[in-house]
Amino acid sequence: MTGSADVPLPLIAPQAGPKKDRYEVVVIGGGAIGLAIAYELAKLGLTDVLVLDKDSLVKGATGRNGGGVRAQWTSTENIQLAQRSITAFKNFAAETGHNSFFRQGGYLFLTRSEPQMQALTKAAAFQNTHGVRTRVIALEEATRIVPGLHTGGCVGATFNPDDAVLFPWPLVWGWKEAAEKLGVEVLTFAHATGFEVSGSRITAVRTNRGTIGCTWVVNAAGAWSRDLARLVGLELPVKPERHEILVSEPLKPFLGPMLVDLSNGYYVNQDMRGELVGGLGTHTEESMEWHSSLEFAREFAKTTVRLLPRLGPVRVLRQWAGSYDKTPDAKPILGVAETGPINLVQANGFSGHGMMISPMVGRLTAQLIAGQKTDLDLRRFALERFSRGELEADPMVIG
Is residue 245 domain-shared with residue 305, that is, in the same domain? Predict the structure, then answer.
């Protein structure tokens, strides 16, 4: 399930091209974010939408992450994005007909630092005021939640039973098919190569499949979003940050929550097939090179055996990498920049957490384009916060 990032995809012949030469909205990026935006636009009645993806679907971040979904954050906006997205994920299968294998087994955070434990305790109290059921728990309780867990060297833990894991690929297929039924067009192997600009507006998107006129453009290109923005002279403080992940052979189910060791950003969950899927917050670099490294596998194995000693003999089946679209404060950039084209909407910079808040990002972006009042104030996610020095990093970021 979540360990399937390197399963070969069937060869898909490129489509002939867009059906029309002009659309109301062109969304660049066919991952969870871009397709959620397209679907939410269609739900609001804006169906004249074209989604472009430079490759086949699930080749980017949506197809390469560990599937975690959590509300354990320390900022109001991050918690709100997560809570409302969790509600949407619960309804996803009924709404789209695609099963994302959404499972609320919780997130268990372990820390080996007293100052960090104090921060986690403060965070739990803050989360409680927003309806998140995080608890500070004794290490003995942590070992009951995760049988066989070794907590030597740890000083404390927090646990929220409502956090979850899912299989990201069905999000792509589900939103794609649901949006297409409402009239949206999705075009793969369509690479945006430039823009035509008149005054303060983008009038067309140039692609390897032709030039496409538009009223709105959405930059949901993930790790490619910085390069895309530069095509209109807009500089985003977003960098592609390479992360690795791996999956084990299937095991008898034993791991209910996503287990996180904050000392090195280690995380692991067990998918519906029994495979362990996890990664690390270390061994990152600014890169779009998605090679795998032995160093990562060694450190992941070392941390796994330290926490769960009985897993020493377990074999690794697959290993892969992908790139976050990382911002300095690890929060997304949402909305229209003050200095760029007035019809270019940014939906990027998610720093490894885009999939888990994609339903709400889709809704907010669609509301903005439709001229509606957005459910949340987008000013906290404005590009201008960086130049104004209004940065407030969330310490619950992993990696």
Answer: yes
Instruction: Scan for tokens 């809570």, then name that residue.
Output: 83
Q: How many residues would you count in the chain?
A: 399
pLDDT of the chain, 399 residues: tens digit per residue:
344 444 444 444 456 789 999 999 999 999 999 999 999 999 999 999 999 999 999 889 998 989 999 999 998 989 999 999 999 999 999 999 999 999 999 999 999 999 999 999 999 999 999 999 999 999 999 999 999 999 999 999 999 999 999 999 999 999 999 999 999 999 999 999 999 999 999 999 999 999 999 999 999 999 999 999 999 999 999 999 999 999 999 999 999 999 999 999 999 999 999 999 999 987 677 888 888 899 999 999 999 999 999 999 999 999 999 999 999 998 999 999 999 999 999 999 999 999 999 999 999 999 999 999 999 999 999 999 999 887 676 666 665
Q: Are residues 158 and 197 in the same domain?
A: no
Please tell me whether residues 111 and 135 are part of one structural domain.
yes
For residue 26, the enclosing domain spans: 22-64+169-238+328-388
Asked if residue 260 and residue 313 are part of one domain, the reply reads yes
Contacts of 239 (CB under 8 A, 6+ apart): 226, 286, 325, 326
pTM of the shown model: 0.93
The dihedral built from the CA positions of residue 371, 372, 376 and 377, taken in this order, carries a sign that is positive
Pair (173, 312) in one structural domain:
no
At 183, list the tokens: 């009239």
- Considering the domain architecture, whether residues 291 and 340 belong to the same structural domain is answered as no
Best CA proximity match to 267, nearest among 142, 138, 110: 110
- Asked whether residue 258 is domain-assigned, the answer is yes
DSSP letter, residue 384: T
Q: Please identify which residue in the block is written with the tokens 């509301």.
A: 367
Reported for 199-205, long-range contacts at CB under 8 A and 24+ positions apart, including other chains, are 200/341, 200/342, 201/341, 201/342, 201/343, 202/232, 202/341, 202/343, 202/344, 205/26, 205/28, 205/52
